[in-house]
Amino acid sequence: MRVLSGIQPTGRFHWGNYFGAIRQYIDLQHEEASYYFIADLHALTTIHEPERLRQLTIDAAIDLLALGLDPTKAVLFAQSDVPEVSELCWLLMTVAPMGLLERCHAYKDKLAKGLPSGVGLFTYPVLMAADILAYDSDVVPVGEDQVQHIEVCRDLAGAFNARFGQDVFRLPKAKILDHSAKVPGTDGEKMSKSYKNVLELFEPEAPLRKSIMRITTDSRPMEEPKEPDGDHLYQLFRLFATDEEREEMSATYRRGNFGYGQVKKALADVSQRYFADARVRRDALAADPEKVNAILRDGAERARKAASAVLLRAQRACGLR
Ligand code: TYM
Q1: Does 252 score more than 60 pLDDT?
Q2: Which member of 4, 20, 58, 315 has the lowest number of beta carbons within 10 Å of its beta carbon?
Q3: Same-domain status, 250 and 135
Q4: Range of the domain at 21
Q5: What's the pLDDT band for 105 if we cut at 50, 70, 90?
Q6: Which of 79, 146, 156 to mutate to test the pocket of ligand 1 (most atoms within 8 A of CB)?
Q7: Quick check: is 71 in a domain?
Q8: Residue nearest to atom 16 of ligand 1 (CA)
Q9: SS3 content of the chain, % helix, strand, coil (to 5)
């Protein structure tokens, strides 16, 4: 079984990325083969400062390694280091119906929020399909928001296979962790870099605590008993808490007579505890950039080997080469 996933370096990683995706990458790296990449080409649709993109890409690699990605088990690389994927993207573009891409919610949502959009953003799911198909991936661990893109990938692979009469591409499946489907941000909406409501994994403790204290809450009186499920502050707390802490907190909610400030403080404490070891590992890696670059170079070499075989197969099937 081959596992693959990607993550955009459009900002520093946040809790949504971790619980929605990265944690699964780490669990799945013990599978037969796993490929994880930093989607710097996708990030170009939003980041336009070259130095910032370069730095965020390196930071992303350091974060993933610090969180437990093991380069002796998984192949870790930057998307743009595998040019075969961009070539494959064009081949898939020739079978992609406009209507299919117009229905993709990532594009629709950005349009609706008045965020800038262009052809890159519109064809984003095609590049994502190329990412997945280039490595004959079987399973793609992602958060709920990416499931539609995996469906598009399956559609495009099916369309290409149907047009060229051969089993060129292997059809992948999405893998979602149930309870992490959608991590809420500080405003209760999906945590997302583009919505500016994120809590970053490795933000220094003091500003992170401040951001936690600013999480929006309702204005019901303190005494009123409250239902924890459905409350975004509790949803965040439960990601980090032990079973015991979780039960205790939900009992507090149901009893009433508590302040949200108290829950926020508890959230700051448990989240700090949760990432304490990763923070130490991150500091060590950040002090050794050459080591991180060497890991990315080695990953790119291994990834290109796999992707070039698939690209050749696709090119031959459609009359190229
Ligand atoms: P990206 O960079 O937006 O997010 C990376 C991963 O984090 C998950 N995620 C969340 N999960 C739960 N709750 C949240 N609030 C939350 N925010 C983010 C995402 O679902 C994702 O799994 N298009 C992809 C990157 C990509 C990719 C690929 C993924 C490019 N090519 C090929 C898989 C396969 C993206 O923008 O993810």
Answers
A1: yes
A2: 315
A3: no
A4: 2-182+288-317
A5: confident
A6: 146
A7: yes
A8: 16
A9: 60, 10, 35
125 lines ligand 1 (CB under 6 A): no
Residue 44 pLDDT level (bands cut at 50, 70, 90) = very high
Residue 179 has pLDDT above 60, yes or no: no
| Residues 137 and 249 grouped into a single domain | no
What's the pLDDT band for 181 if we cut at 50, 70, 90?
low
Which CATH number does the domain housing residue 84 bear?
Answer: 3.40.50.620
Q: Is 191 in the pocket of ligand 1 (CB under 6 A)?
A: yes
Atom of ligand 1 lying closest to residue 7 CA: 2
* pLDDT(173) > 80: yes
Nearest CA to ligand 1 atom 26: 6
With a 6 A CB cut-off, is 140 part of the ligand 1 pocket?
A: yes
Distance from residue 7's CA to the centre of ligand 1 (Å): 5
* Enzyme catalytic residues: 110, 190, 193
Q: Whose CA is nearest to atom 24 of ligand 1?
A: 7
| CB neighbour list of residue 217: distance below 8 Å, 6 or more residues apart | 233, 260
Measured CA to CA, the distance from residue 151 to residue 287 in angstroms comes to 40
The number of domains in the chain is 2
